[in-house]
Specification:
38% helix; alpha/beta; 15 helices; Rossmann fold; 2 domains
């Protein structure tokens, strides 16, 4: 590749999960800075599309349906035809899964960058090694390995943080939603996300309930907003129910719940005084803001997925260290009791929460 090579049209691909897409946003910024005049497109699935739909460094976002059977095949054909018609010069596949690698290959881009995955590496013209072992290395740095291969250096989180643009309509909707459930403008809002798509990352509901009780006791200015994925409303209801049982009369009206879209969840972070949740998509959405974060790490390591942003913004990791089975690939729990999370106590998380709030207060006093 020539040193002065400058592609006019760039295709970026990252399918699957919300957090995975968040982790590519520092790379998007770096690509734009390196190729300021290029037309940059991003292929994403519907669930995570809001993360990048308003990204200022992209020219367009291509949302591909995730459907099975004949309808899914027809969708794929339409997408591939559109990609080929766009005549991309460079395709970067941040995923390198079966579907994304095929998209990169069939896009017709003469330069295709991806991970050297067995059975699929041949689809790329530039292949980057990706060890199969779980590494104590941030996922954002793994994304930058692909960019390093085309001459783009890894960025620092201070100058290239994870980002998601706040929609004006979403911010307005959040303000109205909070008012409708009794949250006042001067309340200290603590957002707690209580669900996770992966059972390896679910902290027990009774632990969340105990934590909420501790957060509210002696702090009449605090209001806890419990959020969960739409498929996990039962988890939120159970946490709220157990929290109500533990709370006194003055605390019960300060435990509330509401549904938020992904765009609204990002806007909610700008209103929150603290975010608490597992290592899942919503935590990574929170990391695109400056809200203090307490992340609960079970089978994953903070060094791999902690907030990628300036270190001045408080982030605390609540974890059980020293377990020989941690980290794991999250397929089978060897001890069988999910001890990496079940042994994490509400007292430990409470201490992390107070540290994060104290650090935030210190920043605000300067």
């Amino acid at each position: 590749m020539k040193p002065q090579w400058s592609p006019e049209r760039i295709l970026l691909i990252r399918l699957r999960e919300i957090g995975d897409v968040v982790f590519t946003t520092p790379a998007i910024r770096a690509i734009r800075q390196h190729f300021p005049k290029a037309h940059i497109s991003y292929v994403v699935e519907p669930l995570a599309a809001p993360v990048v739909e308003r990204n200022p460094h992209l020219n367009d976002v291509i949302v591909v349906p995730k459907r099975k059977g004949a309808r899914g095949l027809i969708d794929e054909i339409h997408v591939i035809r559109a990609l080929r018609a766009s005549h991309y010069d460079l395709a970067i596949d941040f995923h390198s899964g079966p579907r994304s690698s095929l998209m990169a290959w069939l896009s017709g881009a003469p330069v295709r960058v991806g991970y050297d995955v067995p059975g699929r590496g041949w689809m790329y013209t530039t292949r980057v090694a990706r060890p199969r072992d779980i590494r104590a290395r941030h996922a954002v740095e793994n994304q930058f390995d692909l960019l390093n291969a085309i001459g783009i250096a890894t960025s620092d989180p201070i100058y290239s943080p994870a980002e998601m643009v706040v929609e004006t309509a979403a911010a307005t909707a959040v303000q109205q939603r909070l008012a409708s459930i009794g949250v006042r403008s001067d309340d200290e809002v603590i957002v707690i996300h209580v669900s996770a798509g992966n059972p390896f990352r679910r902290w027990p509901p009774d632990a969340f309930a105990s934590l909420i009780s501790k957060l509210l006791r002696g702090h009449p200015e605090r209001r806890v907003v419990v959020v969960a994925g739409r498929s996990d409303r039962d988890a939120a209801a159970r946490v709220i129910g157990e929290s109500m049982d533990r709370a006194d009369m003055t605390e019960r009206n300060r435990i509330v719940s509401a549904d938020f879209t992904l765009a609204e969840l990002r806007a909610l972070m700008d209103r929150a005084a603290l975010y608490i949740g597992g290592d899942s998509g919503p935590m990574h959405i929170a990391s695109t803001s400056t809200v203090p974060i307490v992340a609960l790490y079970g089978p994953t390591l903070p060094v791999r997925s902690q907030p990628w942003r300036a270190p001045q913004w408080p982030s605390e990791a609540a974890e059980i260290e020293g377990l020989p089975c941690r980290p794991c690939n999250q397929r089978v729990c060897e001890p069988g009791d999910f001890r990496c999370l079940t042994r994490l106590t509400p007292e430990q998380v409470m201490e992390a929460a107070e540290r994060a709030l104290d650090r935030a207060a210190a920043i605000g006093s300067h």
